[in-house]
Amino acid sequence: MEVLHGEEDLQLETLQRFESEGLLKNGKPRLACARSYFLDLMDLDFKGLRDYYKTWRDLKEFLILYRQESDTRDSKKTIAVKCSKRGNDVYWKRVGNRLRGLKDVEDVEFFNRKARGSMKSRAVFITLTYDTKLSSVQDAWIQEGISWNRWISNLRDKFGEISYIRCFESFVNGYPHIHALLVFKDHAFNVFRQYSKTEKKYVFRVKEKAVFESSWDSNVDVRACSSLRSASLYITKYLTKGFHEGSEEALDKNLRGLTLAMNWIFRKKSFAVSRDLLDLISDLRNSKSRRVQVDLFGEKHPVVWKFVGIKTIYELKSEYPDLNFDRDWKIELPYCAWDPLN
User: Fold this and answer.
1) What's the chain's Rg over C-alpha atoms?
2) What is the pLDDT of residue 44?
3) Residue intervals in the chain for CATH 3.40.1310
4) Do residues 330 and 80 make contact, with C-beta atoms less than 8 angstroms apart?
5) Are 154 and 217 in contact (CB under 8 A)?
6) Which of 139, 137, 210 is nearest to 174 (CA)?
7) Cα-Cα-Cα-Cα dihedral sign, residues 83, 86, 89, 92
């Protein structure tokens, strides 16, 4: 048997293994295949799911886009754009762009952390966990969106407008938990200082914790944020920490690989930002401006690009052996088999 060398060869070996197990569609790992196999198991195979997710994530695929402004050959152009997949480099570039407004927020101080008197805050950092006795792992993930919407709606009924950013994370046992930053428009909570033995430092909590627990079935942790900037930096750092570490072992150690895999198979948004929060802390796009097509990174284009199809890096290298698809995310193709003028 020929000895394979290189990352791509190892990936091909993995694809062949999944192919022999009937877990590929047209030779490619797909979410539908993962759901039909892993969700039918009595107990979720976390390692198997994580390996399958990573194979899907690391398989480089490209959108083939075609521009034709007129019937002349000079105006045509065909490009291959690397697909954004949950957890790959394109995805994290887009996440970083989305969170840029949070990082650059103009600060608003809610209370002085060194103060000894009365303190109040309109921003809190929340962690919502699930009681494993209430449901299975699968049911917990299926219900988490519904539970979150019910919980945040209950708070809005009590306190009015609430802006937020929230993310779904996985524990080592596969059960989900939710982290969220909430900013209240018209309400401030009473804050007190408490020493944390586990963290060996003082943390800030709110006296009205019961209102956050009233519509949640499991444990609720509430921390007061001293300023909007500190809260924004904390949540953005939390959302992205560990994702760019240098090894898969590092990612697995802090459960990022499992978190991404679980959000993927249950078709959850890893994080969500309410529109009003973005309005508060980031530059708004002019809604009255003329609408134009944008690319994966939000860049405007005055012309229309037509979607042609999706190709793996192996298919493109076979068709265009002189082009380097490992270096760039966007590559112009010298010709296209789907071009009606060819």
Assistant:
1) 24
2) 87
3) 105-244+270-281
4) yes
5) no
6) 137
7) positive
Long-range contacts of 72-76 (CB under 8 A, 24+ apart): 73/341, 76/339, 76/341
Compute the distance between CA of residue 133 and CA of residue 128 in angstroms, rounded to an integer. Answer: 15
User: Which of 297, 340, 337 minimizes the C-alpha distance to 81?
Assistant: 297
Planar angle of CA 223, 196, 277, nearest 5 degrees: 15
CA distance 38 to 44: 6
Cα end-to-end distance, the chain, whole Å: 42
The amino acid at residue 242 is G
Residues 6+ apart with CB under 8 A from 199: none
Separation between Cα atoms, residue 302 and residue 221, nearest integer Å: 48
What are the backbone angles phi and psi of residue 269, rounded to the nearest 5°? -75, 120
pLDDT, residue 76, reads 74
pLDDT band, very low/low/confident/very high, at 230 (cuts 50, 70, 90)? confident
38-67 burial code (b ≥16 CB/10 A, e <16) = beeeeebebebbbbbbbbbbbbbbbbbbbe
Tell me the C-alpha to C-alpha distance, in Å, between residue 175 and each of 14, 141, 171. Answer: 27, 7, 6
Residue 151 · residue 253 · CB < 8 Å? no
Query: Class for domain 105-244+270-281, per CATH?
Result: alpha beta
Residue 127 token pair:
């962690």
Write out pLDDT tens, residues 55-97: 999 999 999 998 866 555 556 788 999 999 998 989 988 888 8
Following CA atoms 182, 185, 187, 190 in sequence, which dihedral angle do they give, to the nearest 10 degrees?
A: 50
